[in-house]
Amino acid sequence: MSGFPWDAFALNLAWAAAAALAVMLATFAVAVRAGVHRIVDVAWGIGFTAVAAVTFAASAGHGDPLRRVLVTALTSVWGLRLAAHIARRGRGHGEDPRYEAMLAKAPGNRNAYALRMVYLLQGALVWLVSLPVQAAQYVPGPPSFLTWAGTALWAAGLGFEAVGDAQLARFRADPANRGRIMDRGLWAWTRHPNYFGDFCVWWGLYLLACGSPAAAAVSLVSPVVMTLLLTRGSGKRLLERHMAGRPGYAAYQARTSGFLPRPPRRP
Question: Transmembrane segments in this chain: where (predicted)?
Fold first, then answer.
């Protein structure tokens, strides 16, 4: 693991934590003023973008310049697209039912509880999941095959996520589809094309950090945690619990993959 600038990277960890915390605290202030905590979902992508930008500045003089630009650009494109999509989707709506249910059980002040259990927790997750974005910018040596393989996997994931979101938005915009289950396009191949896209994005970014054994080792936890969040945590599991009572959803589950894309089963 020689050649990796551990001292500089350790300092960067502190800068990245400060960036994630600043984004979440600013979002909390806006949410309290607006009276709607669903705004924190917009901050998720912005937090990763902030960490990537701060790391790019802090890593000057370390790592390969091309890899630093590449990982910052890829993270920012993903994060800002996601933030814009969530902001557009939530415009004009009230509180998210997930946060409403959580805050209804809050002991004491709801805003203080939201700060602890939502904003600070998401800030910590941004810091943890972004470890490949941070470590990759300190990897010495020029880009390798893994760099370009990771970029290709990131591109596939972003495409899957963006196309899936666009297909769902068009489906919901048609009044004829009210009350129906979206089972077309990518949604016929997996019940969660957006989550599968995220999965590919973060394993792709991890490959960009694999130009150094040290960076690969220190950041492996991040795509693993993201995978668990998407499949077992607040992603797929909670959404399917919410959808379970919808007419036609059980049949959709029976014929459509739960995560990895594959052709739909015959009825």
Answer: 12-32, 39-60, 66-84, 118-139, 203-231
Q: From residue 39, how far is each of 23, 122, 237 by CA, in Å?
A: 12, 12, 22
Length of the chain: 267
261 within some domain: no
Domain residue limits at 218: 6-255
33 three-state secondary structure: helix
Give the CA distances from residue 27 to residues 2, 53, 79, 157, 209, in Å, rounded to whole numbers and listed in that order. 40, 18, 15, 27, 29
Query: Structure tokens of 179?
Result: 């009350």
Query: Is residue 267 a part of any domain in this protein?
Result: no
- Burial call 200-229: b when 16+ CB within 10 Å, e when fewer: bbbbbbbbbbbbbebbbebbbebbebbbeb
| DSSP letter string, 126-162 | HHHHTHHHHHHTT--S---HHHHHHHHHHHHHHHHHH
Rg (CA), the chain: 19
The CA–CA distances, whole Å, from 254 to 130, 183, 187, 250 equal: 35, 12, 13, 6
Domain membership flag for residue 173: yes
For 118-149, what is each residue's pLDDT tens digit? 999 999 999 999 999 999 999 998 999 999 99
Number of separate domains in the chain: 1
- Per-residue pLDDT tens for 229-241? 998 877 677 777 7
Is residue 47's pLDDT more than 50?
yes
What is the predicted pLDDT for the residue at 1? Answer: 43
